[in-house]
Amino acid sequence: MSLPDRNNPYTFDAFLDRLHSVDFYADDPFLQKALKHFAGDEFIELDRKLREFSRNVSFRWRPLADTGGCPNKLPYVQHYDAYNRRIDRIVRASETMTLETEIFGEGLFSSKVTPWERMAKRYLLHQLGEFGVMCPVACTEGLVALIQAFPEDQTPDVRTILDHYAEGEDGEFGIGAQFVTEIQGGSDIPSILLEAVPEGDRYRLYGNKFFTSAVHADYAVVAAKVSGSEDVGTFIVPAWLPGNKEKEIRNGFRINRIKWKLGTA
Question: Domains in the chain: how many in total?
Answer without folding.
Answer: 1
